[in-house]
User: What shape does this take?
Amino acid sequence: QLQLVESGGGLVQPGGSLRLSCVTSGFDLANYAIGWFRQAPGKVREGVACISGDGASTRYGDSVKGRFTISKVNAETTVYLQMNRLTLEDTATYSCAAAKIAASIATVYPAVFDYWGQGIQVNVSN
Assistant: This one.
């Protein structure tokens, strides 16, 4: 059974950093794009970052470019989201998701993703 489990969330001050992890099981990570998405109360779901199945392509939402980095190690089953220079606007529930698309494609459009983790809270606050 395909599963994704997020970890690493919590409370951080503005300007700080967090690293989220998405542990996957039940499928070959090389055949799926993995994306990170977030949703704040009263707002629509936003695509944060995505890494392609072959790991060669990444894509980021405009609001996080230059601050967030998505990565994975081929031999592992975990995808990471390093978040730096966090701001109050980064507060949200973050979820990882998997999409079985072409191995070289990365996208931050949520509709493409079929499998979702339960999400983890990130709070940026003084």
